[in-house]
Amino acid sequence: MAPNDSAETNGEATGTVVGRRKKARYIVPFAVAGVAAATIGLVPALAASGDPDLPDITAQELIEKIAASDQEQLSGTLKVSTDLGIPSLGGIASSLAPDAGGDTSAAPESKLMELASGTHTLRVAADGPDRQRLSILGEGSEYSLVHNGDDVWGYDSGSNEVYHAQSDGAERPDGMRKAPEGVPATPKELAEEALAASDDTTSVTVDGTAQVAGRDAYQLLIKPKQAGSTIGSVRVAVDSETGVPLKFTLATSSGGKAAVDAGFTKVDFSKPDASSFSFTPPKGAKVTEAEELKDEAGRNGAAGKAPKDLEALEDFKGLNVIGKGWNAVAEIDVPGGAGLPAQGSETGDMPAQAQQFLDALGDKVSGDFGSGTVFKTRLVNALMTDDGKVYVGAVTQDTLVKAADAAE
Predict the structure, then answer these.
(1) 82 forms bridges with which residues in the sheet?
(2) Which residues pair with 194 in a beta bridge?
(3) Parallel, antiparallel, or unpaired for β 231-239 and 245-252?
(4) Is the pTM here over 0.85, yes or no?
(5) 315: which residues sit within 8 A by CB, 6+ positions away?
(6) CA distance 264 to 78
(7) What are the structural domains of the chain?
């Protein structure tokens, strides 16, 4: 029978247990931190073929199994998609980017930003902390990001453009730290982030088994104990043999399609062929060095075309956290004590595309704090008050307003 933990029967893993994990060992080696993974979502039917019959395991034991996993070699195919309830970020990112005079479509930033919306198929390979490859498959084109030793290559087959950066062992020329070991956008990295947020406001249980990419897996279920969060649950399918998370699904408290869901459709834990990490610019390709982009940005000004008021956001006076756990809200003071300017106002000139984006997300609200606008996605919401404070968190609009009222 599939194991089904609960706090009463099999020892729910609380923040005390999670706090003892060895965080450094959670991450399968990867070349580019993303997230966000963060910031992603997978076509739901990957866990098919019935639930495998596996030995019982407690939530604590399963977390320890993830922590003990030292798998540094793998290759496979991922399907990832994101449904955050916002427009595609590709065009907006381009509109706020520096002058494209020395830019290239092969630079990682814009390509990885595309993963923040829609559904994508990725191929990944990893062989320890110094060799990784990520390929994003498009319709008739492919974007590849290759990390091999001190070299990082990006190649956009659609435009036949190449990006190249060299690492000094600590920091890469594109401003990103040397990869902290793993494959970008893998369920393992997403699982580590979710577990890092776990404390006594969190329920962590084993909720049955599944089969993902032809492998037997336990399902770890992470849920807020508090009301008021936009996050309903996080489900992680963990390979029963290696302890590597194979699938990550983040459901919102409002229901509907998963907001973030990433999983392997094929995976192989043997050593990838060395040729997977070799790259030579194709004949006729335009090659842009990272240093060239940095120099171009310097000539155009550090912020390029970024609106003056957005530049000023770098000077936030401070950050105060209201609440705890899944209901934590960050309070930030905006320099000058003013909210976002309207398009064409005397205090700033916000690009029309950015203004339309904000208007589409914004709801006017009021409370003891005064009045302001809430900008909403399916996960992260932000309240900007008219007197220049920002409250942001993975919480509902009502929770944001209560936090703003409590801060007054």
Answers:
(1) 118, 260
(2) none
(3) antiparallel
(4) no
(5) 335
(6) 4
(7) 15-277 (2.50.20.10), 308-407 (3.30.310)
